[in-house]
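Quarterly update from the structural biology core.
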Amino acid sequence: MRLILLSVILTLPYLLHAQVESSDDFSFEVSKPYQVIDGKRKVYFYKENKILSVKVIAEDVFIQKINSTEPALIKTNKEKLPENSVVESIIELNKKYYFFYSLWDKPNKNEQLFYKEINFETGKFEAITTKLITVNHHLSRIPIDNIVGFWGHGISHKFYFKISDDNSKLLVQYRYLREKRIDAINYDITGIYVFNQYIKPLWNREVKMQYTEKQMNFHDHAIDPKGNVYILATVYENNKNHRKEIPELEIFKYQTNSDTMFNLSGMDAGDKLITSIKFSETTENQISFSGFYSEDPVQFQAHGLFILDMDQNGKSRNTSLFEFPNKFFEKTVDIKNDETDLYYNEPPRPELIDYKIVKTIKNNDESLTIISEQQYIETITTYSKTGRHENYIYNYNDIIVTKIDPEGKTTWMKKISKEQFGSKGKGTMSFKNFFNNGFYYIIFFDTPDNLDEPLNAEPYTYQDKKEAVLFAYKISELTGEIKKIPVLKTSSIKGMTLKQFYTDRLIILDDNEIILEAYKKKKEDVLIKVTFMN
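Predicted structure, tokenized:
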């Protein structure tokens, strides 16, 4: 790994008035600056040439309307939450927008979940506040971890939110704060609440898990169009040393008044070892999973993708394996010699571990496109006079894009090389994607050192929130051919220096357009709209 530590802050083109700059691949324009709202939480929604942004500072909620056609702020409204409120999630459901927050009722020792609907047109809260859930127990805080998708839908603290694939059901879950701190004797108690598309209650239950915390590791949740809830977990037979035991994959299915447990050990990609798995689709008749498998039970080196289908009775219908091409393992890496200006080959260093499925796209012709990324957290432990301290390094590295035809065969599989790390969650790392006119676009921030590097070169490392270039990788749907496009160069242009250019502030518009909102100093934000050429 070639690590470049940069101290220059990201910069982008700045014009006092919106102006279009052109290239063969894209054009962009920059809005007039407007007053910054420096909320720690920023969420964006797009509909009919308008963007709704929701920004939270303590109990103050700022709702902004943005014109995306000619990028400009339209208006800002300020709403107030009750004192000591905790923001839980901000979601879109059935083309409506909802703001969830929790409030601890200290006299009655109740945890309460409320919601308010956001009117997209007015940019204000609706007048009615609805109490959704009351729990007579302290709840466990859920880590905000943008790498692990299990507890992460938007913003989450004590409640977990998941929407069904058909956008008709909402799952809200919580876990009791454990009374016994020893994993080997503690059993999780989880609350399950299911609502329809209008957030009207359908059913709810509290369930004590069948295994201790030490025996059971959660991986993913799902809810189907009927409102059935599924929990995917690995389970160890006992509370002994896990290193000597191979866990089994199990699904727990919860309905209004019954439980079902499916064991996946007999259908785990044959003799392959599953290294990563998640729900990819849940329908009334079928449950589908996707992930990575390994032929190496020691190093957990991924050797390909798998898709696994089962019916509602836990019976396997189909398991498909998609092996990585040999070049993922055998190719040499081109490294530039700065003295000779030539490239030389370095031995291959395959590190195909810790990959996670980020997005599965079902195309109109019934083909699939699966986008995955290497994501992992390093824990750094230090000791001082005050005790033991843990710091976390978040890593977002190579992206693998796989196209699978309607007959279930690999059309192509491509790897985009990148190395990103930081210490405060996702930040400016990972990627956004969209599809337009026969091309997939993968968009992410990267170090300027990679501007002139070829696609097969080992990338220089990008550090979160340092100077960056916004790159677009344009992939042909037909052939998988990749074109690397530097979109916004980060040297200082016309005096504007941007900060807070987080990946989640990249908003995908219709077809071939994106908008980035970022901070430009002097307590001002600015919008940069990019239009990609067909």
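Residues 269-351 form one domain.
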